Amino acid sequence: MPRIPGVPTAKASRLLRLVYRYTRRRFGAVPEPVTVVAHHPRLLLASGLHELLAERAVRVLPTSVAELAVYRTAVRLNCSWCIDFGTMLQKHAGLDIDRLKHIDDYATSPLFTRRERLAIAYADAMTDTPLSVTDEQVTELEAEFGRAGVIELTYLVGLENSRSRLNHALGITDQGFTSGEACRVPVPSDRQGATGLTEEPA
């Protein structure tokens, strides 16, 4: 259960109900971070718009490279919600999710390509505290993906650092997207509490 319970459907504004409806239709359940951040509607709308625009802008990197870098960041920060959601996204993209169990061995595992290893290592370096990114690393990434690719990769890893740290701090955990059971933690209702069942917002 998150440290701050999500906004119940019964207390949601008309606009927030539309947001709930949209995300439920897209993902099969309303992502719990949405219901928690909904306590600050302006930030919810700002972050939602940002996510949609960023999603449309990401076109340079191969999907597997981008998704693995984001996933690795979530693993490093131990954000179980992001790991769960990211696995679902990779599954829907037709990527091999079985190899994610071996992500810690990416540097030597034959399950990952050279390009993927470079991106994952960069995600590690960006997520270290303090950061451990080197000039040589960026030069190698530029040679592989071009300058736009480096910017895109850096942006994606930075964005996932923000998501993971926010979710972790607020106690938002695995929602069941990978297992297809995400509706077991749907939008909270007044009657049943923050983790109770409720029907789709009207």
Please give a structural write-up:
InterPro entries: AhpD-like. It comes from Saccharomonospora xinjiangensis XJ-54. This is Carboxymuconolactone decarboxylase family protein. The protein is built from seven helices and no strands. α4 packs antiparallel against α5. The protein has helices at 14-27, 32-37, 41-57, 63-76, 80-92, 114-127, 135-169. It is globular and about 55 Å long. It has two domains: 9-56; 60-169, AhpD-like (Up-down Bundle), CATH 1.20.1290.10. With 202 residues, the protein is an all-alpha fold. The model is unreliable at 190-202 (pLDDT under 50). The longest helix is centred in the C-terminal third of the chain and has 35 residues, at 135-169. Helices cover 56% and strands 0% of the residues.
Task: Jot down its keywords.
7 helices; AhpD-like; single chain; globular; 56% helix; Carboxymuconolactone decarboxylase family protein; 202 residues; 2 domains; mainly alpha; 0% strand; disordered C terminus
SSE topology:
Layout: H1 14-27, H2 32-37, H3 41-57, H4 63-76, H5 80-92, H6 114-127, H7 135-169
Helix pairs in contact: 4-5, 4-6, 4-7, 6-7
In short:
It contains seven helices and no strands. The chain is mainly α and 202 residues long. The protein folds into two domains: 9-56; 60-169, Up-down Bundle (AhpD-like).
Distance between the termini: 24 Å
The name CATH uses for the topology of the largest domain is AhpD-like
Overall tally of domains: 2
Q: How many beta strands in the DSSP annotation? A: 0
Architecture of the largest domain, CATH level 2?
Up-down Bundle
Q: Strand percentage, roughly?
A: under 5%
Provide the CATH superfamily of the largest domain.
Answer: AhpD-like
Protein name: Carboxymuconolactone decarboxylase family protein
InterPro entries: AhpD-like
Organism: Saccharomonospora xinjiangensis XJ-54
